[in-house]
Amino acid sequence: xxxxxxxxxxxxxxxxxxxxxxxxxxxxxxxxxxxxxxxxxxxxxxxxxxxxxxxxxxxxxxxxxxxxxxxxxxxxxxxxxxxxxxxxxxxxxxxxxxxxxxxxxxxxxxxxxxxxxxxxxxxxxxxxxxxxxx
Length: 134
Description:
seven-stranded mixed β-sheet, four-stranded antiparallel β-sheet
């Protein structure tokens, strides 16, 4: 069983920045695709960003993003610390939501693939609130 613990949420003014962290348990973090999702009140949970293994090598990763965060958010990971990050810059009021990290083990045969549907992920964190004031 993989446990995910998010941190870093909070209240920030529009235009500001926050960095979310997601600490994962388990010994095979390097094989996880790590996703970020968000859910605003009354709305469905949406894909935000994810990192996954590249076809270029076992320890080379790439990221993909939802259109609404491209150029503002950056997903990254530190395998040595079993931690994923979401750097959020130029925050807007519409970014206000509960942010969740998620993980799924991907076999090496699926390198180069980014899961974007919440149903593809097996493990979820508890969520962290991000509130952007205008």
